[in-house]
Amino acid sequence: MTNTYDLHNLTIETLLNRRSIRAFADEEIPADVVATLETVAQHAASSQYLNDWSAIRITDSKVAARLAEIGGQPYIAEAPLLYVFVLDEHRNASIAAAKGVDVDSDAFTLNGSYRYSQAQNDAVLALHAMETAAYSLGLGCVILGSLLNDVDALIDLLKLPKLTYPVLGLAIGRPAQEPALKPRMPRNIQFFENAYPQSSEDMLTTIADFDGVVHQYYDLRNTDRPVDAFSDQIAGNAVADMTGRTVGKPAARQGFRLDR
Length: 260
What we know:
Number of strands: 4
Distance between the termini: 44 Å
Strand content: 5-15%
Domain Nitroreductase: 16-174
Helix content: 25-40%
Protein name: NADPH-dependent oxidoreductase
CATH superfamily of the largest domain: NADH Oxidase
Number of domains: 2
Radius of gyration: 20 Å
Structural class: alpha+beta
Order of helices and strands: HHEHEHHEHEHHH
GO molecular function, one term: oxidoreductase activity
Largest sheet: 4 strands, antiparallel
Number of helices: 9
Family: Belongs to the flavin oxidoreductase frp family.
InterPro entries: Flavin_OxRdtase_Frp, Nitroreductase, Nitroreductase-like
Shape: globular
CATH architecture of the largest domain: 3-Layer(aba) Sandwich
CATH topology of the largest domain: NADH Oxidase
């Protein structure tokens, strides 16, 4: 079961060979590379040109160690280059206030659900641009959703002000491992034409075949056994305990009103 494609260039090959790297060489990332990666991130698309994201570069080993504790992944603290991307309406609220906007009024909208979701999108787009650039330079990365295990602790650690919220982390370094490419599902059950399929029957039949492909994949994090079938992973996550990862309360703490 393969996805076929005909066009090839360096950009496409970089993207098609993307894999998460969780072991890094003890090698500092040069300043010019850091500047390039950060500039690339700034060139990602931004909704309405609000530039409503920021990224915190972690250089303090104690902070990195605490992030590893929050994420439950020791390799986080070992990454030569480490970022936490945040959606950021704090900067824009400060600009608006300086222009005479009452940011405490009901007319203020940068704290609403639409801007929250768009700022989150902008942060992810910037992170992905940085990640792709890093791969193109021969580096490896892993995206760190695990940092959201304890959002309140993360907010406190990074001293995030009102109207900011952590989105994802990104660890970057020279790869010290070569994991196999993780299988991708067939395009025909992820790309649809004009409308979403009204029946899941064909989709589930294809997933049954895809389960076998995934089960043959061995993750470097646990090389002594094959990965669980895709459908088993989905079923497990469907009932997983998400305590601590809910958005509502910490977002309200940060001044967002997701009910409007």
